[in-house]
Amino acid sequence: MDSLAAPQDHLVEQLLSPRTQAQRRLKDIDKQYVGFATLPNQVHRKSVKKGFDFTLMVAGESGLGKSTLVHSLFLTDLYKDRKLLSAEERISQTVEILKHTVDIEEKGVKLKLTIVDTPGFGDAVNNSECWKPITDYVDQQFEQYFRDESGLNRKNIQDNRVHCCLYFISPFGHGLRPVDVGFMKALHEKVNIVPLIAKADCLVPGEIRKLKERIREEIDKFGIHVYQFPECDSDEDEDFKQQDRELKESAPFAVIGSNTVVEAKGQRVRGRLYPWGIVEVENQAHCDFVKLRNMLIRTHMHDLKDVTCDVHYENYRAHCIQQMTSKLTQDSRMESPIPILPLPTPDAETEKLIRMKQQMQDQ
Ligand code: GDP
After folding, report:
1. Which residues sit with their C-beta closer than 6 Å to ligand 1?
2. 1 belongs to a structural domain
3. Which of 33-37, 270-274, 355-359 is the most confident on average?
4. Among 91, 281, 332, 359, which one is most buried in terms of CB atoms within 10 A?
5. What is the 8-class DSSP label of residue 256?
6. How far apart are CA 203 and CA 175, in angstroms?
7. Which atom of ligand 1 lies closest to the CA of 64?
8. Which of 227, 128, 119 is nearest to 177 (CA)?
9. CA of 79 to the centre of ligand 1 (A)
10. Any stretches that span the bilayer, and where are they (predicted)?
């Protein structure tokens, strides 16, 4: 019967209007799809509606151009009311933690950007342990998140964890200073550190190359774990792979910041106007600003958040749970005359996961 019906169906199909034919074809396609191919669209719509957040910390000696760079990166002046301290005031000043939050929107996508500034860092005569208020701050944010997550209402948890720390290295030294090593070693297990060579316009290309090499060697020598760019997927196109290679080779990025727009070759560009010429912030031949901005905003923002959540926060969480468990065991031993077996870790699976991730990172 089917074989007789088929040619007739074909004729009927031809007599139908093109619109009805198209509708039928769509229906046939619909029959072949369950529909889960639309899942990414659903996630996309939901995330855009919810908006994104990102917390960036900037650290380094004052005067290295931190606020100028933040302004150049996000084209937002977060430091309008900043009061600059005199040398006298700076001697007695301790490291402060200042938080600025702005809501920025681009093509309907909202980003809640929080900049955590650390004025006073490295300014004292004796800088030993001057990173302590900063490590405490990062830990406090983890602690707050841990409490909120373990609380009753987990629906609207405010995530204040620091996703990335731009650490400014002076262009005038011969590599890392003890305070740079101390800072990075104190924070590298807690936050994604991206080291930067500040005010790169103070150095000629050869000097930048040497300083970069030196910093890379010292980072290795002191066992500092800065943020590692993830491996590029093998199915990415060649252009993307090339960009990824260049990005990795350029670290630590040598950056220039500017709050002013100047005219260069008939074009208005963000730059620094010197009597002998113009240094353009967004010119890749002048510095790595564009690479840093692309990495931070366009390509790696999500990965920075993932590493914060899956590695740094998980480490903190596992540590907390271990401490809580051992305290519980000790307390029970003191109260009970009967020997008690150590409590099983409540979240052994999480610990296993962290160990695996750590191993993958080390490789
Ligand atoms: P912060 O204290 O680290 O926030 O530093 P600021 O952003 O306030 O900058 C201190 C001074 O350095 C200001 O006079 C800036 O104009 C200048 N500055 C900022 N970025 C650069 C740069 O990339 N190159 C040079 N040469 N000067 C810069």
Report:
1. 62-68, 199, 201-202, 256-257
2. no
3. 270-274
4. 281
5. -
6. 13
7. 3
8. 128
9. 13
10. none
Looking at residue 245, which CATH number applies to its domain? 3.40.50.300
Q: What tens digit of pLDDT does each residue of 293-311 get? A: 999 988 899 999 999 999 9
Q: How confident is the model at residue 212 (pLDDT cuts 50, 70, 90)?
A: very high
Atom 19, ligand 1: residue with shortest CA distance: 65
Nearest CA to ligand 1 atom 25: 199
The winner for highest mean pLDDT among 106-115, 188-197, 273-282 is 188-197
Minimum CA distance residue for ligand 1 atom 10: 63
**What CA–CA distances, in Å, run from 152 to 147, 156, 157, 301, 347?**
10, 11, 11, 30, 19
**Cα 259 to ligand 1 centroid, rounded to whole Å:** 9
pTM for this entry: 0.79
Å from CA of 335 to ligand 1 middle: 61
Ligand 1 center from residue 68 Cα (angstroms): 6
Q: Which of 1-5, 101-105, 359-363 has the lowest mean pLDDT?
A: 1-5
**Ligand 1 atom closest to the CA of 202, numbered from 1:** 26
Would 333 be classed as within a structural domain? no
**How far apart are alpha carbons 241 and 232 in whole angstroms?**
7
Phi and psi torsions of 168, nearest 5°: -90, 125
Tell me if 164 is assigned to some domain: yes
| pLDDT given at position 74 | 83
Number of domains in the chain: 1
Distance separating alpha carbons of residues 4 and 74, to the nearest angstrom:
69
pLDDT of residue 4: 43
- 331 domain-assigned: no
